[in-house]
Design brief:
The chain is mostly helical and 157 residues long. It has eight helices and no strands. The protein starts with 7 loop residues before the first helix and ends with a helix.
């Protein structure tokens, strides 16, 4: 295996595990609960009394919620996966002992975190369609999501 493609097996392992967990109710619910709480508390509760220069407070809040859910969930999913693999399942030691450079392990895990982070705001995208600021960016944000779904389909076959 060449040095440039050593990260791919780590990425593929994480994506196959993510695919197995993705459509379980608890996994999707955990990605959606924090943005919904923020939307209810700040968007509908506090948002009635806040005035912005252009548009409503929800138009200001929703793009931030989409970004927050992406960053928060991608970090949480990668951090919990690494800690569980290192402390309980002892599979991280197998990766470290394999003839793969630590840099390739890091790149594979980081790319898997980025991909998982793209799935998290997909629960917020129906709200984001409502916001004029985010609706312009949505076509450019959706291509990584759909390309990842298609690559997971192809890797499973």
């Amino acid at each position: 295996m060449t040095r440039l493609t050593e990260w791919y097996p780590i990425y593929l392992k994480e994506m196959l595990l993510f695919k197995r967990k993705l459509f379980k109710l608890g996994y999707l619910f955990s990605a959606m609960v924090v943005p919904v709480i923020y939307l209810v508390a700040f968007g509908f509760g506090l948002g009635r009394s806040v005035q912005t220069g252009r548009g409503t407070y929800l138009d200001f809040l929703i793009p931030g919620l989409v970004a927050m859910s992406s960053m928060n969930n991608s970090y949480a999913w990668v951090a919990s996966s690494l800690n569980l693999n290192r402390l309980y399942f002892k599979t991280f030691q197998v990766l470290v002992q394999a003839p793969i450079s630590p840099f390739s392990i890091m790149i594979g895990e980081v790319l898997a975190g980025i991909t998982k982070g793209l799935f998290a705001p997909s629960s917020s995208w129906p709200w984001a369609l409502r916001s004029p600021r985010t609706s312009r960016l949505l076509p450019s944000l959706s291509w990584p999501f759909f390309s990842t779904v298609f690559s997971l389909r192809a890797s499973a076959s």
